[in-house]
Amino acid sequence: MFGDLVDKFDDIFKKLRGAGKLSQKNIRDALREVRRALLEADVNYKVVKNFINDVEQSAIGEKVLRSIEPGQQVIKIVHNKLVAFLGEKAEPLAPIDKSPTIYMLCGLQGSGKTTLAGKLALQAKRKNKKPLLVAADIYRPAAVEQLKVLGRSIDAEIFHLNKKKPSEICVEAIKYAERNFYDLVILDTAGRLHIDEALMRELDEIKALIKPDELLLVADSMTGQDAVNLAEQFHSRLNLTGVALTKLDGDARGGAAISIRAVTGCPIKVVSIGEKLSALESFHPDRMASRILGMGDVVTLVEKAQSVVDEKQAEELAERIRKNAFTLEDFYDQMQQLKKMGPLESLLGMIPGMGKALKGIQIDERGLVRVEAIIQSMTPQERQNPMIIDGSRKKRIATGSGNSVQHVNNLLKQFSAMRKMIKNVSKFKFKDMPKGSFPFQV
To answer: Which of these, 39, 42, 62, 107, has the minimum number of CB atoms within 10 Å of its CB?
Structure first.
């Protein structure tokens, strides 16, 4: 996420920190590089101009120039201004507090509307809400089938009618939801390859009939500046309540995220950061600014951990660790928790300084899959007591998991070393530590 932009900011700020004393000249030189970095990241040129002017006015002052750490002061100013341009504070989706609450998704074809509908439905189910996915795209081939597949994968119902207009489908869906006590209705509307009058009239009609609680534009962040132009046009016509940015985990340069709020005044509410249906985050301007400036995002990392942690299981695990009774079964459970939190590379990138340290290093998550397969090929007794795994058992486990005996040996050696390490530090209060995992490579 924002890889190139993060690297450029890191280089710029490294020079500022290295300067024992700052002058108006080297601050202006640094801001010139910031301007170039933002423009190359597809940030709207008007936004860049206003951003640099605001930073310059705050940075070139006696208080900053004469402070003990002027470089850090400038970085703080840039961070604060970036937060302001991203929207100051998080604006959550409309609360699911009436039956049914209605979310309407709109956007161009291929922006990720249908996948986002599935992600929103899964998010609602995790809050013990009952979602209904509505297939209102009657034009794109396989659009309805795609939504059905997503619905089956998360056990969410799909509503669709044949030979009906999209507006009629939406109206009937709301009636159906009211009769069957659904908490949330998610309307997956049709898109086009470009904005046209027929598309906008259809969306106008649906909005007038349905009166959605949340009208989200789904914008592909990989389109850069076009995503901002798209948001501007949709917002002027439909008066959007928010924007959902998709594919932010790809090769997106970040310009859309920085520009949309400043150009349209429309808040970014959620961001999609992966292909998995669980890969959806609320948009927090301060946290996103920290990520862009290479400061990590520990708060989001902790929230992800808390969302998958079972407190009772965590306490039981802490007790077993204190007694040096940590088993491969426990380790396997930890791996499952880790998988629920999202891609490993994304999680490590939230740790301050880790993104830079990992630059150029390929995170091979297949190692986790291999470990998982090996442990699954063991009997319950072998997981509880790896000491009983002799040569013949290793061969059976290797064959069952599709790996070599060497892979099995590597896992057992690393697990044994980890248990010794845990025993040596058992005096610490493990129950106060965040629940995590140990990503082995075997």
So the answer is: 62
| Half-sphere exposure of residue 117: CA atoms within 13 angstroms, side-chain side | 36
pLDDT in tens, 252-282: 566 777 788 888 889 999 998 878 888 888 9
Phi and psi torsions of 367, nearest 5° = -60, -40
CB 71, CB 16: distance < 8 Å: yes
**DSSP label of 68:** S
| Region 302-432: CATH code | 1.10.260.30
Collapse the DSSP code of 248 into the 3-class scheme (helix H, G, I; strand E, B; otherwise coil) and give the result. Answer: coil
**pLDDT value of residue 267:** 92
CATH number for the 3-86 domain, one of 1.20.120.140, 3.40.50.2000, 3.10.580.10, 1.10.510.10?
Answer: 1.20.120.140
Question: Residue 133 pairs with which residues in a beta bridge?
Answer: 158, 186
DSSP 8-state code for residue 19? -
Q: What is the pLDDT of residues 336-392, one digit of tens each?
A: 776 666 665 555 555 555 455 445 445 556 677 888 899 999 999 998 888 899 999
Choose among 369, 373, 415, 377: nearest CA to 394.
377
Answer yes or no: are the C-beta atoms of 331 and 415 closer than 8 Å: yes
Cα dihedral 143/146/147/148 (nearest 10): 120
Interatomic CA distance for residues 34 and 40, integer angstroms: 10
What's the CA gap between 218 and 188, in Å, rounded?
A: 10
Q: Tell me what the mean pLDDT of segment 10-27 comes to.
A: 74
Q: By C-alpha distance, which of 245, 209, 232 is closest to 113?
A: 245
| Nearest-angstrom CA–CA distance, 154 and 115 | 12
Fold of 101-298: Rossmann fold (3.40.50)
What is the per-residue burial (b if ≥16 Cβ within 10 Å, else e) of 203-231? Answer: beebbeebebbbbbbbbbbbbbbebbbbb
What is the residue extent of each domain of the chain?
3-86, 101-298, 302-432
